[in-house]
Design brief:
By secondary structure, this protein is an alpha/beta fold. The chain is 42% helix and 19% strand. The longest helix has 31 residues, at 28-58. It is elongated, with a radius of gyration of 20 Å.
Length: 239
C-alpha cells in the first residue's frame, strides 16, 4: 500500500520536516503552531504507516483463512470483482483449488483517476483470464454463482449510482442462497484515528448495508479483521 500511495507518504514527511524547519524562522506564537502541525503530521504519518504494515503484511488478511468463518462450505463457483488491483483471486484459488473461479475487473480510468490505482495496476497486473466489466454488467449468467467476492474494490466507485448498480448486478448473478462477501475499510473511529482525513476515502458501514438492502441482499455475518478492516457476508434469499 505504501508503494501504491507513496506521494501521500512523501507529502506527509515533507510537511512534518518543513513545518519543523520553518518554525525556527517564525515568531514564537507562529512557531508553536508550526511545530504542533509538524508533530501532528509526523504522528499521522507514523500511525498510518504502522497500521498499513500491520493490516496488509502482518495480520494474515491476505491468507484468507478468515473467509472460512463467512463461507463455511467454501466459495463454490465464485466471481472475484476487482477495481484495478486484484490481490484476491490467487490466494482464494490456492485455498480452494476445486472451486470454479471467474475474475472481473471494473476498473474505469475515466472515473478512477487516482494515481494509486494506476501504480497498483503497473505493479500487480491483472491475472490472466480477467474479464473487463462494468458495475452494471458482470460476466456471469443470472443465478449461476455461489459467491461474489468484492475485496477493497467497491469503495473505488465514488458515485452512489455505480455502487447500487454493482450490488444489483451481484444479486442478479447469485443463485438463491448465494453470498456476496464485501471487504472494506470503514469510515469509522478506528480508521479515522489512524488515517486522519484519509479515512474520508472510505464509506460508512450504513452505506454498505443500505446498498445491500436495496439489492435485496440480507446481512448474515460480519467480521472485523486486523481492527481496521470489516468483512461482510450478504445472502440472496432462497426460493
Amino acid at each position: 500500500m505504501v508503494r501504491y500511495n507513496w506521494p501521500l507518504y512523501a507529502g506527509g514527511a515533507l510537511a512534518a520536516a518543513g513545518g519543523w524547519a520553518l518554525a525556527r524562522r517564525l515568531p514564537r506564537p507562529a512557531a508553536r503552531l508550526a511545530r504542533a502541525g509538524a508533530v501532528a503530521a509526523g504522528w499521522l504519518l507514523a500511525c498510518s504507516t504502522a497500521a498499513t504494515w500491520y493490516v496488509y503484511d502482518l495480520s494474515g488478511l491476505h491468507s484468507y483463512t478468515w473467509l472460512d468463518d463467512l463461507l463455511p462450505d467454501g466459495p463454490g463457483r465464485h466471481l472475484v470483482v476487482s477495481a484495478g488491483l486484484d490481490e484476491t483471486s490467487r490466494p482464494v484459488a490456492a485455498r480452494h483449488p476445486r472451486a470454479a473461479q471467474l475474475i472481473a475487473d471494473i476498473y474505469d480510468p475515466t472515473l478512477m483517476t487516482e494515481g494509486s490505482i494506476r501504480r497498483a495496476r503497473c505493479l500487480v497486473p491483472p491475472v490472466a483470464g480477467t474479464v473487463a466489466a462494468r458495475p452494471a454488467e458482470l460476466p456471469a449468467p443470472t443465478a449461476t454463482l455461489d459467491t461474489v467476492l468484492v475485496v477493497f474494490a467497491a469503495h473505488e466507485l465514488r458515485r452512489a449510482t455505480d455502487r447500487a448498480a454493482l450490488f444489483a448486478e451481484t444479486a442478479r448473478v447469485l443463485r438463491p442462497g448465494g453470498s456476496l462477501v464485501l471487504v472494506e475499510h470503514l469510515r469509522d473511529c478506528a480508521n479515522t484515528a489512524v488515517y486522519g482525513p484519509g479515512a474520508c476515502h472510505f464509506l460508512p458501514r450504513g452505506t454498505w448495508l443500505g446498498h445491500a438492502a436495496e439489492a435485496g441482499l440480507r446481512p448474515v455475518a460480519e467480521r472485523r479483521i486486523a481492527v481496521m478492516v470489516t468483512a461482510f457476508a450478504f445472502r440472496r434469499p432462497g426460493p
